[in-house]
Amino acid sequence: MSSKSLSKLDAPKNITANEKILSNNDFIVSKTDLKGKIIYCNEIFMEIAGYSASELIGANHNIIRHPDMPRIAFKIAWDLIQNNKEFFGFVKNLCADGGYYWVFTYITADLDTNGKIISYTSIRRKPPQSAIDTIIPVYKLLQAAEKSGGMDASEKVLNNFLEENKTTYDELVINLQNGA
Ligand SMILES: Cc1cc2nc3c(=O)[nH]c(=O)nc-3n(C[C@H](O)[C@H](O)[C@H](O)COP(=O)(O)O)c2cc1C
Fold first, then answer.
1. What pLDDT score was predicted for residue 3?
2. Which pTM was predicted?
3. Residue 1 pLDDT > 60, yes or no?
4. What was the pLDDT predicted at 150?
5. 102, 151 in Cβ contact below 8 A?
6. How do 100-111 and 117-125 pair as beta strands?
7. Cβ neighbours for 68, distance < 8 A, ≥ 6 positions apart
8. Which residue, judged by its Cα, is nearest atom 29 of ligand 1?
9. Residue whose CA is at the smallest distance from ligand 1 atom 5
10. Rounded to whole angstroms, how far apart are CA atoms 9 and 5?
């Protein structure tokens, strides 16, 4: 492994179907600066993602972005955290070897004593398989909408889905994580 932080060009080109499953006690933690550059990650993050600290620190967090993730998920996340609101969501992440792992993610802003956002922190846990099974087809629909009509289209698809299921984004995500 090199000692230089990674750029998007270093992301694996061969995407595989190798899944890594977190154990129940795993907490994957990372912190970023205001632009999403990684400034801290814990051991389990490095172990699962397959990178060293020196590769990850200074890299943009999108280095582990999986191509199956709809863009709207990250838009929702950034819109919330930049307004000092918490984000919860299911994220499929990319490993250095081209494999993937699913996480239930919590992201929040870190404030200084004046209430100014100085960094962001994310903590991730293992999601139940039932949540992943529910979210995969939803993300496929969102990605398909994005391919044809951009993020406006996927936002509409998401809102329709939530309306049809008489739920909100937060409620859906929390219920799925609780195995409902
Ligand atoms: C604290 C924090 C943690 C993040 N964790 C992840 C993550 O685990 N996986 C991911 O794909 N994006 C994560 N992101 C979002 C990325 O910054 C980025 O928005 C996303 O990967 C999409 O990148 P792209 O628009 O350049 O493709 C995180 C952002 C923050 C602020």
1. 63
2. 0.96
3. no
4. 97
5. no
6. antiparallel
7. 92, 100, 139, 143
8. 36
9. 61
10. 11
